[in-house]
Amino acid sequence: MTPLVEMRDIALSFGGVKAIDHVTVDLYPGEVVGLLGHNGAGKSTLIKCLSGAYQMDSGQIFIEGQPVTINNPRDARAHNIETIYQTLALADNLDAASNLFLGRELVSAGGFVDDDRMEAETRRIMARLNPNFRKFNVPVSALSGGQRQSVAIARAVYFNAKILIMDEPTAALGPHETRMVAELIAELKRQGLGIFLISHDIHDVMALCDRVSVMKNGKLVGTERVTDVTEDDILGMIILGKKP
Ligand SMILES: Nc1ncnc2c1ncn2[C@@H]1O[C@H](COP(=O)(O)OP(=O)(O)OP(=O)(O)O)[C@@H](O)[C@H]1O
Ligand SMILES: [Mg+2]
């Protein structure tokens, strides 16, 4: 099977610092791949090369086997890559539907923003992703962290994301909210999306991911199937940079 994404031999330096030092990772449809490593290991920088926030110095990105050039977030979006950051870019004063369609509003035949249709579409997709979501008519500032995540995820899914990048999606969440996001991730997996998940929580990662890629000082330590390793093996990779 062809990977959905392959990032091959990626390198990127900031001044003299090799933030990414010839790293190769891949991702298959319906798979969650965790990116683990200490602060400054290069996780966010690596996925920013995929989301178009940074341009790599060298290396290649393949989407479904085809080499692609990703110079900016628009290029990434054109390849159905969507990113969900921990610090969610939601407009606090707007409701869920307005956030879901922010910058891509539905308009009626007369050229007006079609609020009714946007709310109906939001309800339709939420029924699938997070059936317990009820807060359609309040600003998202009144939503919990997990509910905000579900709005961001709904936005990505509505616009046909095939590849989802989640950078620390549960970092600011309590246990209940974290469970909600975990259920969303499981649902997206069933729908065949591929997800790169950056997290510091090794339990989360072992529970949610199929494989983990561990980075240290900009280098890839290794990639393991979670069923083949223990948490201690992974900790050894993170801390000592040693393969199990
Ligand atoms: N815009 C930038 N300019 C200069 N250096 C940067 C920039 N972004 C990242 N770096 C450096 O690149 C390295 C990797 O940083 P990165 O943010 O990718 O780490 P990370 O693994 O995501 O860490 P964390 O777990 O803390 O989020 C670090 O040494 C960091 O200081
Ligand atoms: Mg980071």
TrEMBL record:
Topology in the lipid bilayer:
Peripheral membrane protein
One cellular component term from this protein's GO annotations in UniProt: plasma membrane
Molecular function via GO = ATP binding; ATP hydrolysis activity
Q: Which domain of life is it from?
A: Bacteria
Give the record's keywords alphabetically.
Answer: ATP-binding, Cell membrane, Membrane, Nucleotide-binding, Repeat, Sugar transport, Translocase, Transport
Cell compartment(s), UniProt: Cell membrane
Q: Which PROSITE patterns match?
A: ABC_TRANSPORTER_2
**Occurrences of domain ABC transporter (ranges):** 5-242
Q: Report what the protein is called.
A: D-xylose transport system ATP-binding protein
Native source organism of the sequence: Paracoccus tibetensis
